[in-house]
């Protein structure tokens, strides 16, 4: 089976993420993101070039979760696709493009964070109860201390 791949982008959140609803009522997250660009010089050093800015949108429950986890300045990686868009600005139609993110996460190379590996939803409650329950030696199976031989 072949490896599933998609387009990806990396950058930093340049505007405060805005969670709204699409015309169909679906949650929609929007923010502008920046991408820093560098040029490698002959002596091995890097020169920073002008930062470019782009649009990112995300929809549905992923948009809601991302809205709660991301803030202006966060570094991220996102998987999805580009699409052309047009909108009105000062009476003029502007042609542009946006990145539609299906998945997004903080950039581990540039972000410090902790990972919560506990189960989500109802499973989380069960796991919490199991973890908090005191160890009870009586509930453990009995193990004989003397070896037994059977033939």
UniProtKB/TrEMBL annotation:
A single MF term (Gene Ontology): single-stranded DNA binding
Pfam families attached to this UniProt entry: SSB
Residue ranges of the TM segments: none
Location of the region described as Disordered in the Swiss-Prot/TrEMBL record: 1-27, 105-151
Bias-annotated ranges (Polar residues): 17-26, 141-151
Keyword Transferase: no
Residue ranges that the Swiss-Prot or TrEMBL entry lists as coiled coil: none
Keywords from the named record: DNA-binding
UniProt-listed InterPro entries: NA-bd_OB-fold (IPR012340), Primosome_PriB/ssb (IPR000424)
Source organism superkingdom: Bacteria
Composition-biased stretches (Basic and acidic residues): 105-136
Descriptive protein name: Single-stranded DNA-binding protein
Lineage of the species this protein comes from: Bacteria, Bacillati, Actinomycetota, Actinomycetes, Micrococcales
